[in-house]
Amino acid sequence: MEQERNMAKDRKKQSRDKVEKFILSNTTKQDRFKLTKKIKVATVTIALIEATNVEIDATEEKPRVLFCRFRLGSEKYKSKTIKCHSTSEIKWQELFNLNMFEDNHLELSLWDRDSCIGRAIHDLSEMEKEKTHKLRVNLEGEGPSAQLFVLLTVTGTSTNSLIDLDDYQVSQRRLSIMKQEFAWYHLKSESKDVGALFVIVYGAKGLVSNDNYCILTLNNARVQTHTDYKTNEPNWMKYFSFPVTDITSILEVTVHDEKRSEDVAKISIPLLQIKNGEKVWYALKDASQRDRAKGNNPRILLEIRVSWNFLRSAIRVINTKEENFLEIEERLHRHIFARNLGRAKVVVAWILNAFRVAKTLFEWESTKSNLIALSIWLPFCWFFKIWMLPLLLLIPFAWYRPPKYYLVNWKRYFRRGIPNEESEENSKKDKEEKTSLRDKINNLQEMIQSVQNFLGKAAALFERIKNLFNFTVPFLSFLAIFFILVIGFVMYMIPLRYICMIWGIHKFTRKILRPNRIPNNEILDLLSRVPDDEVLLDIQPLRLEEPDRDMIN
Known about the structure:
By secondary structure, the protein is of the alpha+beta class. It has helices at about 1-25, 30-35, 165-180, 310-315, 335-365, 365-385, 395-400, 440-470, 475-495, 495-515, 520-530, 535-540, and strands at about 40-50, 65-70, 75-80, 80-85, 90-100, 105-110, 115-125, 130-140, 145-155, 195-205, 210-220, 220-225, 235-245, 250-255, 260-270, 280-285, 295-310. One of its GO terms (biological process) is regulation of neurotransmitter secretion.
């Protein structure tokens, strides 16, 4: 009996094996791989900014060596190490992407060499998807509670996908609600948002690589699509929404190759230059945004809508600009140094040309120009009042305005060409120095790096002033004109002595009335919204090589 039972078990096992072999023989390798492969739910993007409330003993000679670790399921990452003597130096400004499968608990920990200072576990299931969250995470440890400042985004999910017409209609209804919320007559709002941005990423064509996904960045907000594998014509069909805190912001669209882990294409689109509600093919640039991206006329199809409140945006422009937490100072590099030096030379030439024009008016080099200038100067001096002083700032706007704002083209009587001097790079061979001169070299590098960054900032400031006058961003130029007219009207209505008294009282009492205020300069805040020439090159669109009739299947 027992022998018969064993024979029956063997027959059942053999029949079961035959069935499994039959099933596997009719299953493709790809399907078999899918059975064992983990299903990726989303991508968790962590921007590690800084750590605060970390105890550091100033009497210790050895610096603390700090780093962070992140763990999400089987995904583990480690930040770079930082040697620090004070809490102000604990800044990483690093970006990490973790694949999210089934585990929703993200572990964050701060380490000093081999000892853990503190750790925390964050539940990602409670977070809103496709939105960047600014978090200050308290770490639990033996000592005082340290704190990590991170930007956390759960993105690349299957939600917000345009599968059919119903999904598109839902997105349109959301847009109509946003339009009503940011209508011009809605001035009072608890949030700092001045508008809302709505982006539909349809797909791309002509890319040089496969396995691509698209990243959208607006200030500190960063979201991305899923990866479309094994095709250089991805079809993402995803929509995103962003809160707009500054209408002068720039939307950055990046196409990233997941396999090679590099950016293959990028474009920058100012919100004020968006063609609202239109499907537009944008020609893609390379990562430097100076040349066309590699591929067969690479392009991306986007539909962008922005709804914003004009009055709230105008007030926001003269307040402190939002800090980009991932922006770091450029390291010393001879190409950057030469580029910034060339930019500074152009700005200096622009200023010298303005003085040269004024000098020609006094030197009577052109009789016609001098007679016109004199006929304007004498009545101006005769009728001049102090309230007219800010109105003098309208002259550069009138001088540098583009042709579409001309009423009478009188500029040809005055204008002299600004010299376009090409920046010359100093081609010097790199020399290797001995180790004994290391300190001198480090000091020299720090000095040159400071000069390089100063030149870049100075050139950017004067470029912004120039671009404000020539209506590069008409919204800001007209806003500046409006402010100038208001200042002139106030100075006309109120005597100067009262204005000076009010200004003095304001300056002396603002620290008492507003002790926690953030110091700012309204003029510099306005100029910070104007793009410099480098940004203008970034946002310069490319002409498509093919008709705009391409459609994503």
